[in-house]
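Late entry, written up from scratch paper. The run itself happened at the end of the previous shift, but nothing got recorded in the book at the time, so transcribing now.
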Amino acid sequence: MDINFTDLEKLIKLAERSDIHSLKVTDGDARINIICQSNGSGSDHQTANHTSHSSGQHLETRDDVNVGANSTDETPPAEDQNNQSNQVSAPMLGTFYRRSEPSADEFVSVGDQVEAGQTLCIIEAMKMMHEVKADVACTIKEALVDEGDVVEYGQPLFVIEPQ
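Output as recorded:
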């Protein structure tokens, strides 16, 4: 099995940032299980089990990864909280699109005033399209991601000025 470590790292980060207990990914005969559990010392501890069945061979590895302090127990500084309230972040890992189809107009452009609930962009994950909508009425100050870029969970997409 050829392990794409970049994709594996993204899966571990996704599990780390999400409120999930386990993540299982299957691609043909290849299977990856990521099991998240607390080690009781205030930090998250993840165990990744990789199992592959290919050409009659059996490969199993077990890697323990300490991913650091539990982010839900930490309060970001007031400056970070202010910056986060002026950003729209990706709700998931996926591919960023500014329009519904290649020939369509962009959902929003820099300088546009948008209403709460208005679609700002689409993120595609596993052939499913997820609309990212404005939580509040605002003005788009800056677009931080280009069409077709892969975005991470929590990555800032737009800088906004709430109205």
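Residues 5-73 form one domain.
(Scratch paper discarded after transcription.)
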